Amino acid sequence: MANIRALVLNCTLKQSPGPSSSEQLGREVLDELAAQDVEGELVRVVDHDVRFGVSTDEGNGDGWPAIRAKLLAAQVLIIATPIWLGQPSSVCKMVLERLDAELSETDDEGRLLTYGKVAGVAVVGNEDGAHHTIGQVQQALNEVGFTLPAAAATYWVGEALQTVDYRDAGPKPDTTGRTTKALALNTAHLARLLADRPYPPPGAKGAAVGPSRESA
C-alpha cells in the first residue's frame, strides 16, 4: 500500500500567532487524515514571503518554491480558506494563481506533475457563501491537474451578521465533523488508488488531453 502524505495550505489573512479558524478546520482535516494513516503538515501561507505571479519562482526571495516543494512531495492537497465578501481569501487566490504555473510542468512521460494528486477544500466564514467559495477553488484545482474525490469539501458558516468564529463555536460532530471525516476518508482512498495506478501519459491510447494554459 502506497504511503500518502498531505499538505494543508491555510490561506488566512492573519500571520502567526494570530488565531485562525481556517487553521483549526485545516488541522481537524489533518487529524481525520491521520486516522487514515496519512501524515501531513499545515503551512500558513501568509507567514511566508509568497510573491504574486504565475511562475514556479518569482525570484528575489520568493517563498513559494519552498511551499511548492512540500506540495510536490505530497499526494493530497487541502486548501483551507476563510470567506471574505463572499469570495475565497486573497491569499487563496494568490495560491491558485501560483498553481497556474503547473500547467507548464510535466514529468518524463508528459503528464502534469499535479496529475495523480488529490485535492480538497475546507472553508470557514461568518456569512453564507461556502458553496460558492468551494466551487471556485475546486474548479481551479481541477483545471491545474488535481483530482477531486466525492465529497471533497468541508465547511462551517456562522449565523449572518453575527461575530462567532469557528474556533470559538468549536467542532460540530454531526455537521462539519461529519463532512470533515468524509473529506479525509475519500481523499486518502483516491490518493492511494492513483498512487498505485497513475494516469496514462498523453501519448497513450485513449488518454485525455490536458488543459490549455490561460493567458495572463
Report on the architecture of this protein.
This protein is α/β, with parallel strands linked by helices and 216 residues long. The chain has a single domain, classed as Flavodoxin domain (Rossmann fold, 3-Layer(aba) Sandwich), CATH 3.40.50. It contains six helices and six strands; from the N terminus they run E-H-E-H-E-E-H-E-H-E-H-H. Strands 1, 2, 3, 4, 5 and 6 form a six-stranded mixed β-sheet that branches. Helix 1 (21-34) crosses helix 6. The longest helix is centred in the C-terminal third of the chain and has 21 residues, at 176-196. It starts with a strand and ends in a 20-residue tail after the last helix. InterPro entries: Flavoprotein-like_sf (IPR029039), FMN_Rdtase-like_dom (IPR005025). Residues 195-216 are annotated as: Disordered. Residues 204-216 have a biased composition (Low complexity).
Shape: globular
- Taking all Cα atoms into account, the compactness measure Rg is 17 Å
CATH class: Alpha Beta
Oligomer: single chain
Low-confidence blocks of residues = none
List the helices and strands and how they pair.
Elements: E1 5-10, H1 21-34, E2 39-44, H2 64-73, E3 76-84, E4 87-88, H3 90-99, E5 118-125, H4 130-143, E6 153-157, H5 166-169, H6 176-196
Parallel strand pairs: 1-2, 1-3, 3-5, 5-6
Antiparallel strand pairs: 3-4
Helix pairs in contact: 1-6
Domain NADPH-dependent FMN reductase-like: 6-150
Region (Disordered): 195-216
Protein name: Multimeric flavodoxin WrbA
Summarize this structure as a short list of keywords or feature phrases.
about 220 residues, alpha/beta, Rossmann fold, globular, 6-stranded mixed sheet, 6 strands, about 35% helix
